[in-house]
Design goal:
With 100 residues, the chain is mainly α. It has five helices and no strands. The protein has two domains: 65 residues; 34 residues, no CATH class. It is 69% helix and 0% strand. 0% of the residues are buried.
């Protein structure tokens, strides 16, 4: 659970928080040019990480593999046996048609 929160909430929020943090730093601390270069660096690193993540996801999708965390979303959360128990509700054919 902690890893999921880290991956899906904290990590995507790091780049906007860094840019907002740079916005509120005093100009005398870094200077105008250095603050701008730091903001550009944060944006470029964030964009690079997004492209790498998308490439990994597309490669895994092309290979027909999905992570176990995604497969848990196909199960009924109100199932008395628990949200992760039992077979997935979708068949492989339905899973290929549904991108989620």
């Amino acid at each position: 659970m902690v890893e999921a929160i880290l991956r899906h909430v904290a990590l995507p929020a790091a780049a906007p928080a860094a840019v907002i943090g740079l916005y509120f730093t005093p100009v005398l601390l870094f200077g105008c040019v250095n603050r701008g270069l730091l903001a550009v660096a944060v944006v470029l690193v964030s964009a690079g990480a997004a492209f790498v993540t998308a490439r990994i996801g597309l490669r895994e999708q092309a290979r027909g593999r999905s992570s176990g965390q995604v497969a848990d979303l196909d199960r009924d959360p109100h199932d008395p046996a628990g949200p992760g128990a039992g077979p997935a509700r979708l068949t492989r054919a339905a899973e290929r048609r549904c991108p989620f």
